[in-house]
């Protein structure tokens, strides 16, 4: 797939689905899938419900209650399970996904005293699935727990109708924020509490992501859509590795607690060496 076609696919799949519903994350259909749903605040969780949106109604999948346990609909027994990573993690795991599982899913968490928090996830067919561009532009470096700023300048020759920021991974695309021409902003559920955005300018957009976690080291797209043109800018967020340098016979010896091969957990040492900081 060439770069232009890739951009069209991204625009069609993310942010909103065909029915106009705002989608927080888009997942590729596979036999094993994780529909991530992690409550980002500290309010007490009263109950969690997972539902699938059908044409005329919402189909119950499972209900999780801290006292009464988990109730799973008969249709999904033996095909899904829930991990126990943390109190806030209510992610749904498929172990036997089929074409019937394509569609919209709602993770609805009832809390006290904050009320209902909801995340919308769409599973799409492999034939419609997105691809990761091989041309990873504009590397940006930070460390876990830090803050990163992305600036996206664009000039598409006419008024900007919307600007969308996305986090792209191999198996999913997460909507960070969608800005429209009227000044409205819609944040993805995973980013509401830690993202600042300025998309008031007709020629650029800026986002700041705070409290960087391991899942944030990925590719990011800024998609500016005009009346006749679309502009996309890509960023790759990489781990800034700090290594202790000790010169003995001109050999670099990092301490045991650091790894000089930690950029995106897989890059070569040669890519990291220019980034080393003496501590």
TrEMBL record:
Residues 1-18 form the signal peptide. CDD domains: IgV. One of its GO terms (cellular component) is adherens junction. InterPro entries: CD226 (IPR042842), Ig-like_dom (IPR007110), Ig-like_dom_sf (IPR036179), Ig-like_fold (IPR013783), Ig_sub (IPR003599), Ig_sub2 (IPR003598), Ig_V-set (IPR013106). It is a single-pass type I membrane protein. It is found in: Cell junction, Adherens junction; Cell membrane. PROSITE patterns: IG_LIKE (PS50835). The keyword DNA-binding does not apply. Its main location: other. One of its GO terms (biological process) is cell adhesion. Keywords: Cell adhesion, Cell junction, Cell membrane, Disulfide bond, Glycoprotein, Membrane, Repeat, Signal, Transmembrane, Transmembrane helix. Residues 126-234 form the Ig-like domain. The keyword Nucleotide-binding does not apply. One of its GO terms (molecular function) is cell adhesion molecule binding. Belongs to the nectin family. This is CD226 protein. It comes from Anseranas semipalmata (Magpie goose).
């Amino acid at each position: 797939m060439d770069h232009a076609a890739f951009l069209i696919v991204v625009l069609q799949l993310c942010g909103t689905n065909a029915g106009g519903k705002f989608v927080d994350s888009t997942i590729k259909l596979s036999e094993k899938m994780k529909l991530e749903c992690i409550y980002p605040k500290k309010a007490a969780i009263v109950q969690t419900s997972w539902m699938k949106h059908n044409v005329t109604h919402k189909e119950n999948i499972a209900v999780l209650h801290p006292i009464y346990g988990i109730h799973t609909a008969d249709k999904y027994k033996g095909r899904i399970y829930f991990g126990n990573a943390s109190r806030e993690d209510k992610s749904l795991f498929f172990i036997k996904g089929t074409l019937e599982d394509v569609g919209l899913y709602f993770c609805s968490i009832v809390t006290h005293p904050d009320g209902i928090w909801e995340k919308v996830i769409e599973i799409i067919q492999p034939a419609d699935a997105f691809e990761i561009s091989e041309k990873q532009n504009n590397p940006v470096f930070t460390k876990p727990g830090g803050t990163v700023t992305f600036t996206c300048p664009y000039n598409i020759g006419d008024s900007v109708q919307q600007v969308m920021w996305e986090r792209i991974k191999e198996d999913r695309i997460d909507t960070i924020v969608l800005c429209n021409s009227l000044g409205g902003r819609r944040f993805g559920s995973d980013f509401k509490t830690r993202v600042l955005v300025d998309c008031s300018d007709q020629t650029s957009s800026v986002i700041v992501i705070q409290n960087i976690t391991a899942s944030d080291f990925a590719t990011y797209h800024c998609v500016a859509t005009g009346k006749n043109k679309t502009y996309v800018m890509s960023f790759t967020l990489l781990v800034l590795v700090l290594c202790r340098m000790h010169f003995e016979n001109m050999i670099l010896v990092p301490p045991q607690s650091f790894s000089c091969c930690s950029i995106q957990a897989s890059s070569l040492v040669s890519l990291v060496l220019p980034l080393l900081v003496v501590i």
